[in-house]
Design goal:
By secondary structure, the chain is α/β, with parallel strands linked by helices. The protein has 11 helices and 13 strands. The radius of gyration is 20 Å and the shape is globular.
């Protein structure tokens, strides 16, 4: 039996489209998977919200401990764990052979490395897939998402107070969450009105990202194909590394104009590689080179622009 955990999440929903699993679970019915002892399990059920992990590291650790408890009770023979390249304290110039030593990574990465180690020590047949930044169907966050959905999905309490004091519609469109952030809660019709409001204020979700930042954007369209290839070749750990591109370059290629937004003293930079890149017909440690990545992002955003209208 083949099962998928996290089928309603971003990564999991894409896997559910790309492969026919015998059963699919999420947080609402995960207990039904306990004791099923499946032959094969993809675990894509770990939440991926870095900003919350930074603000609430203990709560984030609880998410990891819950995942361990779930996997233990499910008891799969073979496990694919969807992880992250953020397990590297410094995600530049590293690959699968580079040791991750100490606790210098931020809470988000450190906690997910804790889960990786548990899997390595307790599940004999395993494959750990470290994903970088992503784009694809059901995308809900990151710079690629913000390019077509400029209305911020979340606002800090300070930003909410400032922006809502200048435009009352904002006050009506966000709801305070238990984590202290205000979350967007509107239908598509109201969201279009809100988009015009943010444009008039000269503020959008794009303001949160430094234009000099460099990310590795992996196209989820290829996820199951690449997982299957990794399994066929007996891998136990793989970075799905693609060549990095800057935020400014993405914006220029997509919108045709320059994007300048220097907001951080320490600019984010990702450039991890994979020793297995050639297995996926990649070169120089990258599964895809920047030309392919940029082309796919542009196509994705064009389709999203048409969909949103």
């Amino acid at each position: 039996m083949e099962i998928l955990i996290g089928h309603t999440g971003f990564v999991g929903s894409n896997l559910a489209i790309q492969h026919q699993f015998d059963a699919e679970y999420n947080s609402s019915n995960i207990t039904q998977a306990f004791g099923t002892n499946p032959d094969f399990c993809v675990y894509a059920g770990v939440r991926a919200e870095k900003f919350l992990a930074v603000k609430y590291p203990e709560a984030d650790k609880d998410i990891i401990l819950n995942a361990i408890n779930n996997i233990r009770k499910i008891n799969p023979t073979r496990l694919v764990l969807i992880s992250t390249i953020d397990v590297y304290p410094n995600p530049v110039g590293v690959n699968e052979e580079c040791p991750i030593i100490g606790d210098t990574a931020k809470a988000y990465g450190y906690n997910r490395r804790f889960l990786e180690k548990w899997v390595q020590e307790n599940i004999k047949k395993h494959l750990i897939v470290r994903l970088p930044a992503l784009f694809g169907k059901n995308l809900k966050k990151n710079f690629v998402y913000d390019l077509t959905n400029i209305v911020p999905a979340l606002l800090s309490s300070d930003l909410f107070a400032d922006l809502s004091s200048r435009e009352s519609l904002i006050r009506d469109c966000y709801e305070l969450q238990n984590n202290g952030f205000y979350k967007l809660s509107v239908d598509e019709t109201k969201k279009k009105k809100l988009r015009k409001v943010f444009e008039s204020l000269g503020f959008s979700a794009l303001n949160f990202t430094d234009s000099r930042a460099s990310f590795q954007f992996y196209n989820l369209e290829f996820l199951w194909k690449h997982i299957h290839l990794a399994l066929e070749n007996g891998l136990s750990l793989v970075n799905f590394a693609v060549e990095p591109i800057t935020v400014a370059d993405v914006y220029k290629n997509v919108r045709g104009i320059d994007f300048f937004n220097e907001i951080n003293s320490n600019v984010v930079r990702y450039d991890i590689k994979s020793i297995h890149a050639s297995l996926f017909k990649g070169t120089e440690g990258y599964i895809f080179r920047k030309e392919k990545v940029m082309y796919d992002i542009c196509e994705f955003i064009r389709n999203e622009d048409r969909r949103i209208g």
